[in-house]
Each structure stands twice: as C-alpha cells, then as structure tokens.
Amino acid sequence: MPTALPPPAPEVRAEAARRLDALAKPLGALGRLEELAAWWSACAGRCPADPPAAVRAVILAGDHGVSSDGVSAYPREVTAAMVRALVGGEAGASVLARQHGVALRVLDLAVDADLSDLPGVTDHKVRRSSGALDREDALTAAETATALAVGARVATEEIAAGADLLVVGDLGIGNTTPATALVAASLGAAAEQVVGRGTGIDDARLAHKTAVVERALERARDRVADPVQRLAALGSADLAAGVGLLVAAARARVPVLLDGIVPVAELLVAEDLQPGVVAWCAAGHRSTEPAQRLALEKLGLEPVLDLGLRLGEGTGALTALPVLRSAALLLRDMALLADLAP
C-alpha cells in the first residue's frame, strides 16, 4: 500500500480553531461553518485564509452499457444532449458556475456519440460507452490506465491554470449504476443496501437495477479488492478519470468540493488507491442515493447541504460553494471578542 498523503496542515487547523473560538460570538455559534472554515484554512496552509476565488469545475461525461437495460428513466441519448447544453451555458451547472464565477469544463470520456464538433470536449475521449458491467468488464486494463491518467492530467492542467479549489461533477445516463456497484464493492455491501432510484425510476426498474448490480458484484467478486481492477470491472471511463483527478489533486495539495453519488464513489476508490485523499475533500451535498449515505459515513464526511438534490453535473457542489466562501470570510473578517471588550 502506498504511503498515506499528509493531511491539510494540522497546525493551521488548530490555529483556525483557536481564532474561531476568539471571534465575537458564543462558542460554536457558527455551527458547521466553523468546521468548514478550519478545513479550508488548513488546506490553504494559512489562517485566516482568503475564500476560494479561482474555482474550477470539471464535469466528466460518459455513457454506460447498462443504460440500454432499463436502469434509468431516460434514454442514453440525453447524455450527448446535456453535454451540448453544458457547453452552450444552458445546463444547471452552467447557470450556477456563471453565478458563482466558476470556470466550467466538460469532458467527453465515453459518450456514445460523436461530439468532435465541440472544441476541447473530446480531447481525452477513451471510448464510446463503457461495457455492460453485469455481463462484461466496463473497461479493459489499458482503458482503465488511460482514464486514470487523463484524470490526473486534467487535474494538473486545472491547477496550472490557477485553481485554488476544484469541483468534480458527473454527467451520464445510467451512471448511478456503476457508481453504486463501486460503493458496494468498496464497502462489502449488498446491492439492496445501496441501490437507489437515480433519475427517478419506478419500483419495477428499481428491482431490475438492483438485480443488475447483484450480477455485476457476483461477476467481479474475485477482483474488487484491487482498486484498479475494481474500476475496470465495475466502473467506467468517466469514473476512472474522476479517481485519477482526485488522487492528483490531493497529491498537489489542492482541495476538492465533491458533488453527489458519483464523485463520492470515485473518492472511495481513490482513497484505496492513495490513502489520504479524503482529507483534501469536502462533500458538497447529500444526494438521495443510499449508496452515497453509506460512503459518506465510511469516509467520515458530513455534507454541507441536504436539499434532496439528484441532478448531478456538479450542481450540488456549486450550490454549496457560497457556504464555503461564507465560512472563510467569517473567519477572516469577523471581529475578535477581545477587540470589542471595553
């Protein structure tokens, strides 16, 4: 197992905790904002730290073999249409990124369509769709390695562009199925414990989706202990790229604000691949997926928001961003009680 990465500066976190206690307020009166402020200061390596300003969001898109088998309420053609909506500035993540001054980048890792007319979007495409994971591996070993490397390269590019915080989002019809399978395999959970309704499937499709995940876990059971083989068997090119991005960001000591079930599933695998990644991540929101709840408990992460969101695209993390900025501003600009005392 590789050596664990160092966590965000413990001494700065302790300094932030002392400053929070000294602010002009009752102890603990800012609730979870205090935890966020201390985490952000530790990641930045100084106290107080300026709020995240150069925020860059990466939305990783791909189609999935299981999406042809009735695990989603929508056809896979929606994936390509939503990539175009993101590029055109009309998708939910586009609206929020514009509102909050976030640079948004969408990448086609495995969309089952030709999107080559979109400049830069297909530069890192690995394949068209991933394999149907209940019957075959999602990726070959070579494709898995390529996707992991793409994620690391993209993280490096975004950091070189000045990012002080990364947001990771996802896009792809059917992508909660591989994400759920990865969570189940990572935690040793049964399919019925983790499978959720994704885009809003009915009871019959939920039962079918559960059976698909059960078959996938049974097929891959001898290989899931290895995180790279787990990705090949049960993941997808876009999820593998997300794992590579998270590991590279943590190694570069750049924090990441996660979205819903898909990035959290990626984090479980990333933490197995490179211990210590989780300390550099914050959970933007609690999704409606039971797999995300179990994964967050395992990772020790408490989401910033709990609004019943299930859109993906990074929308939950982007909605949480102003809360993180507020926490940093309060720690930096709020008066100290000692300065107000007569």
TrEMBL record:
Organism of origin is Friedmanniella luteola
Q: Name one GO biological process term.
A: cobalamin biosynthetic process
The record describes the protein's role as: Catalyzes the synthesis of alpha-ribazole-5'-phosphate from nicotinate mononucleotide (NAMN) and 5,6-dimethylbenzimidazole (DMB).
Q: Does the keyword Ligase apply?
A: no
Per the record, the domain of life is Bacteria
Its catalytic activity?
5,6-dimethylbenzimidazole + nicotinate beta-D-ribonucleotide = alpha-ribazole 5'-phosphate + nicotinate + H(+)
Q: CDD domains per the record?
A: DMB-PRT_CobT
Question: What pathway does the annotation place this protein in?
Answer: Nucleoside biosynthesis; alpha-ribazole biosynthesis; alpha-ribazole from 5,6-dimethylbenzimidazole: step 1/2
| InterPro entries tied to this protein | Nict_dMeBzImd_PRibTrfase, Nict_dMeBzImd_PRibTrfase_bact, Nict_dMeBzImd_PRibTrfase_N, Nict_dMeBzImd_PRibTrfase_sf
What sort of enzyme, by top EC class, is this?
Answer: transferase
Please report which protein family the annotation says this sequence is part of: Belongs to the CobT family.
What would be one Pfam family of this protein?
DBI_PRT
Keywords, alphabetical: Cobalamin biosynthesis, Glycosyltransferase, Transferase
The catalytic activity of this protein is classed by the Enzyme Commission as 2.4.2.21
Q: Which SUPFAM superfamilies match?
A: Nicotinate mononucleotide:5,6-dimethylbenzimidazole phosphoribosyltransferase (CobT) (SSF52733)
GO molecular function list:
nicotinate-nucleotide-dimethylbenzimidazole phosphoribosyltransferase activity
Active-site residues, record numbering mapped to chain: E313 (proton acceptor)
Write down what this protein is called: Nicotinate-nucleotide--dimethylbenzimidazole phosphoribosyltransferase
Instruction: Establish whether keyword Glycosyltransferase is in the entry.
Output: yes
